[in-house]
Amino acid sequence: MKINEIIGALNHWAPPSYQESYDNARLITGSPDQDLTSILISLDCTEEVVQEAIDKKANLIIAHHPIVFKGLKSFTGKNYVERTVIKAIKNDIAIFSIHTNLDSVHTGVNHMICERIGLSNCKTLAPKSGLLTQLVTFVPSTQSSTVLDALYKAGLGQIGNYDECSFQSQGMGSFRPNSQANPAIGKADTRETVEETRIEGIFPSHLKNKIISALKKSHPYEEIAYYLTALDNENQEVGAGMVGELYSPMATGDFFQLLKDKFNLQVIRHTAFHKNEVKKIAVCGGSGSFLLGHALRMGADVFVTADFKYHEFFDAEQKTIIADIGHYESEVFTKELICNFLKEKFANIALNLSEVDTNPIKYF
Predict the structure, then answer these.
(1) pLDDT per residue over 182-234, tens digit each?
(2) According to the model, what pLDDT value does residue 70 have?
(3) Cβ 206 vs Cβ 15: under 8 Å
(4) Residues contacting residue 322 through CB under 8 Å, at least 6 positions apart
(5) Same domain, 122 and 258
(6) For burial by CB atoms within 10 Å, which of 20, 33, 60, 166 has the most?
(7) Which residue stretches, if any, does this entry annotate as coiled coil (predicted)?
(8) 179: domain range?
(9) HSE value, Cβ hemisphere, 13 Å, CA-based, for 296
(10) What span, in angstroms and rounded, lies between the C-alpha atoms of 294 and 266?
């Protein structure tokens, strides 16, 4: 098996186009055509993690956090980033990062946090816009089912918990083939009218090539009329953070003890307990202070995230309780999330969870 097969599956799950502009979720070192031996899955990639990969004979490290965020202008080993990259390259170890794109998908990091807490009715806290495209095309009515089946299989018409969503209307299409044409219906130099179905549907923009390929392969016409329109609609399945509900209200202190138990926490930085009970919970793995406004608008009783600065705690204004559980602590279980995904997709690969504690923050 080639490393590229693993990358392809991960990119299908969490498309690179979903990552934030500052991010570097990609293959960072190594060749995609390299034969795979085994995989080491980690939260971070450090020198110690690369050594662990060497010891376990793994030639692919899948890390949530990219070891390289910015362009490197030298490789002299002057910092841990350069030393990590040099060590990986010297030992033919590929490093792949799946970061904010995995944060953004509905089955990603934040969904895992919701599951650990025990939340239901989970929705994306801040859906992304500009990720959807509308397709409009015209098909002979006798062939519309065939074309629709192909488009649905390629990814057209997925809206939340519904799939195969489209709009169809009937009309008459007309055309006149010239002498060089090879029409499926009609003959050269003669105007033809055909009962046609207008098909409309939306799809994630990153599936454009797949959708158009399916349209061309299934459509009977030699020349296909279709329109693509970029949409500003929010994609409810993609975005930052999630919000859900506990099955029943819980005493605030009991909920915070639940967080400590589920995430192996030594301490939680939080705002005052201004509510005796909590039910609606917003979450964001990693640095989530930018989502506080969304948590407030959604009426979250608690916002579970990390990396809040001192003055940002005041912004809660006793409308929600901020629970800063730590960046590492909120995302360390991402290793299991990635591992479980790969286990379902590939039955014949060796998977290792990193045993290195990469948390740079210690508590005394």
Answers:
(1) 888 888 888 989 999 999 999 999 999 999 999 999 999 999 999 999 999 99
(2) 86
(3) yes
(4) 269, 270, 271, 292, 302, 303, 305, 308, 313, 316
(5) yes
(6) 60
(7) none
(8) 131-231
(9) 13
(10) 28
Residue-level pLDDT at 188:
85
Per-residue DSSP letter, 204:
E
User: Closest Cα partner for 216 from 137, 321, 291?
Assistant: 137
Q: Going by C-beta distance under 8 Å and a sequence separation of 6 or more, which residues neighbour residue 254? A: none
Question: Looking at the structure, do residues 224 and 250 belong to the same domain, yes or no?
Answer: no
Beta bridge partners, 196, equal 140, 171
User: CA 326, CA 113: separation in Å to the nearest integer?
Assistant: 13
Let me know: does 13 contact 53? Beta carbons within 8 Å: no
Residue 164 sits in a domain whose CATH number is: 3.30.70.120
**What mean pLDDT comes out for the span 35-56?**
98
Q: How far is CA 265 from the centre of its chain?
A: 26
Query: Which pairing describes strands 60-63 and 39-42: parallel, antiparallel, or unpaired?
Result: parallel
What span, in angstroms and rounded, lies between the C-alpha atoms of 95 and 103? 19
Indicate if 254 and 302 belong to the same structural domain. Answer: yes
